[in-house]
């Protein structure tokens, strides 16, 4: 699963939903100094954690 970015300074991002988790595949061209899959992944994780906390609080 996964695919590459469609523009030189962009990202490729695919996901696969499972009942208890999500698998992500992130990619970017190594030659582009403006992109970072590591930073993108960290921000994605933080955003999902924040959404999960919001939904968990609402479910209580």
Supply the key terms.
elongated, 60 residues, alpha+beta
Would you write up a description of this structure?
With 60 residues, this protein is α+β, with helices and mostly antiparallel strands. It has one domain. Helix content is 38%, strand content 23%. The chain contains one helix and two strands, in the order ββα. It has one helix at 37-59, and strands spanning 11-17, 22-28. The chain has a two-stranded antiparallel sheet with strand order 1-2. β1 (11-17) and β2 form a beta hairpin. The longest helix has 23 residues, at 37-59. The relative contact order is 0.18. The model has no long low-confidence stretch (mean pLDDT 92). Belongs to the carnitine/choline acetyltransferase family.
* Helix and strand sequence: EEH
Give the quaternary arrangement of the chains: single chain
Shape: elongated
Helix fraction by DSSP (H/I, runs of at least 4) = 25-40%
Number of strands: 2
Our count of helices gives: 1
What structural category do the secondary elements indicate? alpha+beta
Number of domains: 1
Rounded Rg:
14 Å
**Integer average pLDDT:** 92
Beta-sheet strand percentage?
15-25%
The largest β sheet comes out as: 2 strands, antiparallel
Strand order of the largest sheet: 1-2
How far apart are the first and last residues' alpha carbons, in Å? 35 Å
Low-confidence stretches: none
Domain Choline/carnitine acyltransferase: 1-46
Family: Belongs to the carnitine/choline acetyltransferase family.
Protein name: Choline O-acetyltransferase
EC number: 2.3.1.6
